[in-house]
Design brief:
With 85 residues, the chain is mostly helical. The chain has 1 helix and no strands. The longest helix is centred in the N-terminal third of the chain and has 28 residues.
Length: 85
């Protein structure tokens, strides 16, 4: 009987130590929030168009001749008709 009670006491101690260790690790992990915006993202807009000017290899010239050609094709067809009974 004494062995059984000491074994139960030892298992309870191990369980208690594991619980304390698990909660202490969880509280340390609560300070680490990598997905929150930093001070660099104070005006972060998720669906705004990106500002690609910082990534340009060759800057756009601001003088010269610039042309733009756009074309739009419209296609309209008669729908197929099927007779009903």
């Amino acid at each position: 009987m004494a062995t059984n009670q000491s074994l139960q006491r030892f298992l309870k101690l191990i369980l208690l130590a594991t619980g304390v260790l698990a909660t202490s690790l969880a509280t340390r992990a609560a300070d680490w929030l990598p997905m929150l915006p930093d001070q660099d993202f104070y005006d972060f807009q998720l669906f705004a168009p990106p500002d690609m000017q910082d990534y340009e290899i060759y800057p756009e010239p601001s003088e010269g001749f610039f042309f733009n050609y756009d074309r739009l094709y419209w296609g309209i067809s008669v729908p197929k008709t099927v007779g009903t009974a």
